[in-house]
Design brief:
It is a single chain. 35% of the residues lie in helices and 28% in strands. A hairpin with a 4-residue loop joins strand 15 and strand 16 (218-226). The model has no long low-confidence stretch (mean pLDDT 93). It has helices at residues 17-28, 53-61, 65-71, 109-122, 167-171, 235-246, 253-260, 302-319, 323-353, 357-372, and strands at residues 9-13, 32-37, 49-51, 73-75, 77-81, 87-92, 104-107, 126-129, 133-137, 143-147, 152-155, 157-160, 179-191, 199-203, 207-213, 218-226, 266-275, 281-282, 285-287, 293-294. The radius of gyration is 20 Å and the shape is globular.
């Protein structure tokens, strides 16, 4: 069996949050890490995300929380507004990285990736872009990995961190299809209104909407559309349609509609979830992040799970003599937490589709409590 303390070489598939976090955590423990990323070297596109307290706690363990806070916008409250435009709740989340630092942060996705990539490269991680894995022999020790450029790697560890549509899952024989739940999620980058110093959520008669600050000058509007067909719309139709969907909402959403009309970055994606029910590993290969467990975005927990995965994986590899034993222990430690978050997110989606917003809020809060527990 491959000893964790011998030739510590790892190939990671995917340079997203999970892949980069795992690369940093492994490199800190002396592993030689190479990442195969199918995308180009340009900074990731997209709107942004919320780094909840557990995300910041995990990033703080990697020494990166302050860098992310400097790039993003620190917050500690979630304000909820009902269908009549009346505030119904203000949730104050626990400050998991100290009383003088915020409970969470919004951050533009490209900014987060810049922070993670810079730290990975500083620690000697090699990132190869526009390259992916085409074949794996997981039963061999070391694992034999063929890349799309025709080269072959022999590594003590293979990590599949290539997202919810992971091709690594299929190569390892662990294929699971994502679940689609009849919702489409919209995001639009807009200037941050002065009143937006925390997350705002607005309940609507047909969906939910809100605003997440990303920096002093930027935020993103979100909207969850119920009963929507999975389809691709022309870019020119996105902003006008999002404005129409926001029209029935009361309160400050009218101001957000005006901001959306000038946004040059509007995206629309299906709400998907996924959970590998059985083993996450085969031989010395393992799945992490959305490749193994992808909750719906309503929990804001996906980034936290991804960074935690990298940390826990490195810890277990440091505690066990063999890679295989470490991977089994890793999956055992992560299974309950990840499964609960995914399953609860599906229940939240169902309640939203039934327009039972008040019943969904306690489930969202239970996710925050679960994730506040140590990983």
């Amino acid at each position: 069996m491959e000893n964790c303390r011998d030739a510590r070489t790892a190939v990671i598939v995917g340079a997203g949050v999970a892949g980069l976090a795992a690369a940093i955590a492994l490199a800190r423990e002396g592993w030689q890490v190479e990442i195969a990323e199918a995308g180009p070297p340009e900074a990731a596109s997209g709107w942004g995300l919320c780094l909840t307290g557990p995300s910041l706690r995990a990033l703080d363990e990697l020494g990166l929380a302050d860098a992310c806070l400097a790039e993003g916008y620190g917050m500690s409250t979630i304000t909820r507004v009902d269908v009549r435009g009346e505030p119904v709740d203000e949730v104050r989340l626990p400050r998991l990285i100290g009383a003088r630092r915020p409970a969470m942060a919004g951050i533009a996705r490209p900014a987060l990736y810049r922070v993670l990539r810079a730290e990975a490269e500083r620690r000697g991680v090699v990132i190869r872009h526009q390259v992916t894995v085409t074949a794996v022999d997981p039963e061999r020790e070391p694992v034999r990995v063929r890349l799309s450029d025709g080269t072959v790697r022999h590594a003590a560890l293979l990590v599949g961190a290539d997202g919810i549509r992971s091709s690594t899952r299929g190569l390892l024989g662990l294929e699971t299809s994502p679940g689609c739940h009849g919702q489409m999620v919209w995001r639009a980058l807009v200037p941050r209104p002065p009143w937006a110093t925390g997350i705002h959520e607005f309940a609507g008669k047909a969906g939910t909407a809100g605003l997440v600050p990303l920096s002093d000058g930027q935020a993103y509007v979100f909207l969850t559309e119920n009963g929507a067909e999975r389809s691709v719309l022309p870019d020119a139709e996105l902003a006008p349609r999002l404005r129409r969907l926001l029209a029935p909402f009361p309160d400050r959403v009218e101001e957000l509609r005006a901001l959306v009309s000038t946004s040059e970055s509007v995206v629309r994606r299906p709400v998907l979830t996924m959970l590998v029910a059985g083993a996450w590993n085969r031989g010395n290969s393992v799945l992490i992040g959305d490749a193994a467990h992808a909750p719906a975005p309503q929990t804001a927990g996906g980034a936290a799970l991804a960074v935690e995965d990298g940390l826990v994986l490195a810890r277990e590899l440091g505690r066990h003599e063999s890679v295989g034993a470490a991977l089994r222990a890793f999956a055992g430690r992560r299974a309950r937490r990840c499964r609960t978050l995914v399953e609860t997110s599906v229940a939240i989606v169902r309640l939203e589709r039934a327009r039972r917003h008040h019943a969904a809020y306690p489930l969202v809060d239970s996710c925050h409590r679960l994730m506040a527990e140590p990983a």
